[in-house]
Every structure is written in structure tokens, then in C-alpha cells.
Amino acid sequence: MIRLTVLRLFLGLATLWAASVMIFAGTELLPGDLATAILQNSATPENVAELRKELGLDRPPLVRYAEWLGRAVQGNLGVSLSNQRDVVEELAPRLRNTLFLAALATLVAVPLAIGLGLLAAINQGSFFDRAVNLVTLLTISIPDYLVGYLLVKYFAVRLDWFPVLANVTPETPMGDRLWLTFLPTMTLVLVIVAHMMRMTRASVLSIMSSPYIEMAFLKGLSKTRVVIRHAFPNALAPIISVVALNLAYLVVGVVVVESVFVYPGLGQLMVDAVSKHDLPLVQACGLIFAGAFIVLNMIADIVGILSNPRLRNPR
Amino acid sequence: MSELEYLKNQHKAGRINRRELLGRAAALGAGAALLNTIGLQADAYAAETPRKGGVLKLGVGGGSTTDSLDPTNWNDTVPTVTGNSFLDSLIEVGPDLKPIPLLAESWEAKPGATEWIFNLRRGVTFHNGKTFNADDAVFSINLHRGKTKSGAAGSFSAITDVKKVTDYQIAITLKSGDADFPMVLTDYHNRIVPDGTTDFSKGIGTSGYMLESFDPGVRIRGKKNPNYWRTDRAFLDGYDLTVINDSAARMNALISGQVDAVNRVDAKIANLIKAKKNLALVRSVGGWHTVISLMQDKGALFESHDLRLAMKYGIDRVQIVKTLFNGYGTVGNDMPIPKSDPYYNPNIPQAVYDPEKAKFHLKKSGFDQLITIQASEAAFNGAVDMATLMQASLIKTGLKVDVKKEPADGFWNNVWLKGACVTSYWAGRSTATQMLDVGYGPTAPWNESHYKNPKFGPLLDAARAELDVAKRRAILWEAQAMMSEDVATLIPAFQDYLDGHNDKVGGLTPHSLAPLDNSNVTLKAWLKA
Q: Looking at this predicted complex, what is its ipTM?
């Protein structure tokens, strides 16, 4: 168990490094650089050269990468090339915002999805089952920004219940913060619930045809009890991996929702950084995103093992 | 023309309403005089006295996480709006594109206009308590000269020397005469910081607001500067600017009242904003224009004058203004001086869509190759659509036209100035000479079309050095006519700047140079009770 975890951690770090190489190579391959991106059509050969020198872009890429890596392992992610602010300082509030929104959406979506999935499984084929399936299918089929705009249109502009902008600041008190982020949270919930709910329903139902479930029914247990006590624990592994994937999406994939609600999260920061070729920022965002994916998948694996007695006690 | 005169004319032309006129006039401290001239009731005037206090909530598009308070870095609306609220310039541009004294109280040119003396304002202090003097002015101007990353480097390369004469006087020497030089100093990058500043992050300047919080690309707040040197501006207790780059989100924020004023109103919904009772649209007719370069040096695709004429008459400008800007724009005439410029030449015949004329010129040119328009959204929103519209109208003249969509990333570096037929844009410049020089002058690095009429450069030099307004006008009119006649480049349309605000906001007036009152909204607007 411990050996497995250590191995996973090591693989995770290797993946992280590979990701950093790919991100670096990617930004190098992009046409143009920070200097031309900043100056746009007020660039002259002279001021571009001067800006490049100031930004250190005149040195070979490998040197720049090695320097960055050397500092990064010491926890120093450098300063943003374009405005000379410390990357960690710049990232921290954004990361907090992203995690806050992700946590809120998770707190609502995961219990909701699993609850609905179980209820749908218990009442398989009923009107409720069909209705839940249809509605969640609908919300997952609509692109997330459209869900966002629709919520804004009805709940912010028409009804004026919630604000259009989720422009929180670090000083915003918790109550206001919840109110400001209500619509983005709901958007994300609507988008991720379907996947998790359908997986719960499907994996529980696939277990339902096993002999031991038949045995449980023959013992005279109620359907609810069979599903919750016998089928669900055995169906956990695939559900956990789907939940982990969706949580990873909440951290890395919400840039569109952020921009619809003007929410200062990481995604927006990364998009800005990429469009300006601000490498230290792009790298840092990339590391966080890759890290989130790796950690969440690792947790999913470990919890998956814990939930399965056969894997928990290997012979 | 003074700012007041300008406002009166705007009022006469129906571009601003009476309340706006009175409000702005009151801000200028000229209310009473104006009342006499246009015969209005005193109470109407009283209702529009700028009110002090309140926090203006702005939703502004055009900001990025990479913004900073270093004026050499500024390149979009958010940095200029916030920058102007913290830092003053020596001279500012009035809505009529005339220089207005700010930290420079007065100036004069020696004959020939190569040597200039600027007298600086006394009794102005920076936010950190330092007194403003000539050292600060010299230092600040030099930020954009020599080895610099500044966007103003191009126009400031005309300066050969800046020196302090006394504590409140500086002398500037130019390479060659420029009667409009004070307007060069109004470049939005040229803002005054304390001598020796290396850390710009505190926003230390002399303007009406002091930095309260700065979260680039997200939210910027300013609070009133209690020691501001003028009392007829900066009426607010502070402002709270949220960067909203998403157009729909910006409009929703305005409609739902979460912000009081926005820039970049989507032209497609501008009529809806206008129709709403509690909202107002501020339309600034200005110099922002779309360009399609036609590279025309020897051996290049558009070497033939007849082919360029075929392009000129083969595009439907009216349709472009209607489709792209929903009518909030004006047709262009292949020369970059807008109607709002005092030196605009109104006598050039407007090019209209005429497929027969285009066919005639095409036949005469004998051209039968494929023209590829390289279009990218990096140039401006709708550039690809404009290229497609042009393709549709040009094909009817018998030209073979293809539109190639170029990636936004790296567009300015890899496509612009390199392709023969490329979409591009220019924001208006404060003077006609600057605009003509920067894009079409004989030494301009950004001469997209490689326009090289040997008579054009000397005309520009003559106009720059000419101190007599009437003579300058004549020269500049000739230069504009020459460009349009030569088809120096294709300029299909000028787009208006559209700002929007709710009925709580007073004093947000149009400015032909840039949106949000040339980015001075925090200084000039106020909140009604």
C-alpha cells in the first residue's frame, strides 16, 4: 500500500516535469514572443530588441528553461515577465478563488449527482429515472458558457436575484462571496452533475446483475437496502474516477465560465499569460493544472484501492 | 477653439444634449457665461453642477493580467484609464484635438519650430509629497527616448535633446521643425512620474486619484487625492474599476446596474442601450479605422495603380459600415485622417462601390492573378468578416480573391508588414501630421503598403514645420488628396467609439481620440445624487 503510494508520487513528479517541458516547448513554438505581443503595432526593431533584452528573451531557450527549473525546485517561480510581479504572489489569490469555486461546486454537485444516480438506479425505468436522465443530458449537452449566459439572463438581468459579475476580492466577506459566486457555482454544477450521476447509475446497475445481488434479494432485503449496502460500495471505483476527473475539470477547465462571470480565477490568468507569452506565469499555471490532475487522479486511485478489499489486501 | 467652444458646437450639431453641455461647461467653471450665450434657465444649470462624492463603478474592456503602472507599457484602455487617474501629463488633448495645458502651463516655439520652451506649473505635489519640477518632466520624457521599450518611442525619436532650463522650465530640441510638437507630447504613454522612479507599482503621480488596490486584469481601485492641484476635476471619492473583457458580461453588468459605465458597447446592441430609459450611449466619432494594406513597391502584387483603383472601387464601404459596425461608423476614403480632425480635407470625392469602374481599371491593369487577403481577428474584431465582405464585392468585378484566416497569435510579428494584402487597424492620432507620418511617411517603419510617392515626404516635412495654420491646412489637404488618389492603402471604414453609462453618471462626454472621454472618465465624470 505504502510502496504503491510512493511509486504513484514518483510517477506524478515525473509527469509534472514532462508537463513543464511540454509547456515550455509549446510556448517556444508559438509564433512571436512577449516583446512583440506587448508592443503589437507600435513595435519598432529597436524597442522590440530593448524589451527582449530587458525580459531576458535574447538568451537561448535551453538556458532559460534550465534557470527556471533550477529556481522552481527551490519554490521560486520567478517574476512575471510582463509586469515584474512575483508569480507566487500573483497566483495565490487566483488559485484560492479557483479552489473556492471548485470546492463549492463539488460540495453541491457530488452529493447531488450520487444521490440522483442512486435514486435513478433504485427506480430504474420509472418516470423519475427518465426525467433525471433527460435533464442532466440536456445540461451536459449545452456548452458551459451558454448555461452561464442563460442563468445570467434569467436570474441576474430579468429577476435581479444574483449579481452578473462575480468580482470577488480577497477582502470580500464569506457571505457576500457565496452570493457573488452563486451563479458560476450553479453553472458548474449543472455541467458536471450529469457525468457523475450517469456513471453512478450505470455502475450500480451493472453490479445489480451479479449473483450476490440476487442472493441479497433472495434474503428478502428491500431494493433500497440492496442498492446502498451491497451494490454501491462495489460500484465505487469507477464512480470515484469519474468524480476525480470532474473535480480536475473544475480546477483546470473553467476558464470560459470565469470569463462569462468575470471571476478572477486561474484559467483567466493562464489565458492572459499564454497570449502574452509570459513564460514564468504560463509555467506556474501549467504546473498547478498538471499537479491538480495528478493529485486528484492519485487520490482516486488510492481511494479506489481502499474501497476494494481485493486490492486492499493483496495476496 | 477652446473646450467650451467645442462643447457648444457639439451641442449645436446635436451630438451632446443640453444637460451634458451644461454639466461639462460647469466642470470647466464656465457655466454662467455659457448660460448667457445660449439663454438657458439657471435652475437647469444648477441641476447639472458636478456633484462631489461617491464611488464610480466602471466595467472596462481592454485589460490584462500583464498590465502594469509603468507608462511605457501601456497599450490598452484599462491601463490608460487607471494610469490617467494616477499620473498627469504635461499637455492633454481636448475633444477638438487641440492641446490643453496641464502640468505644462504654457509653451512657445522658436521660429522654424525645432526648439520649444515649456513653462511648468508650480505648486503641484506628487502623491508621496515630493514637489513637481523640471527634473521630473525631463526624466519622464526621457523614459520614452533612446533605448526604451516604450510604445511612444517612434514619435519621440524626433526629439534630439530635453533639458532643464530652470526649475519650472524645460527646453526641447527636435530633429526637424514640427509646429504640432505639443501634440506629440500628449501621447498617452507620456505621463509624469517623479524623477528617478524605478518602481512604478505604487502609481505615484500628481493626478486626481491615488492607488488603493491594483490587481491587474481583474480590478483596480483609486481613492481621491486630497492634495490634487485642481478643484474642477476628480469629483469622486474614488472609483472601482472591474476589468470585463467579455462583451456580453460587460453589457449585462451595465444593464443590471452592477457597474455605472462601460466602454466598447457592442455595436449590435447599441440601439437597445439607447432605447433603455435609464441608460445612455456616448458615441465618439473618431480616428479608429480599419485598413487593408496593398503592398505596392516595384514588383509587388499591387504595383499597378489601376489594380489599386480596381480595389478602391470594388469594395462596398457602406455595406462594411452597416454590417460590421451596425452603422456606428463612417465610410473611409483611403486616407487616414478622420472627419473629426481639424485638418480633414472635405473636398476629396468619396469613393463609392462601382463594379463597372472597377472592371474598367482591372482590365486596364491586365492583372489576372489570385489576390489573397490575409485576415486575422488579432487586427480587430470582425477583420475576417470584413475581408469576406470585400471578397464578395470584389469577385463581382472579375477579380479572383481568396481570404486566408491567419492565427491571432503572432499576427503582428509574422503577417503584418510582411504580407501584400493584410487586415490591420490604426487608432487615431492626435494630429494629422502624426497619423500621416507614422503609417505612410518615407521613413515610417510601419508603412504597411510601402507607400512611396516621392512628393509625399516633402509635403509632410513642409506641413510639420509650417506654423501658419492656413498654409498648413493647404499642404495637409494636398497630402490627403494625394493619398486617396494614389490609393496609398485601402481604408474602408472608420469605427465610432461607443461608451455606455446609467443615469447616475454625469459628465461622460465623447472624445474623438479614445473611449471613456480619452480615458479621463475618472477625472471628468461625476455621480449624481
A: 0.76
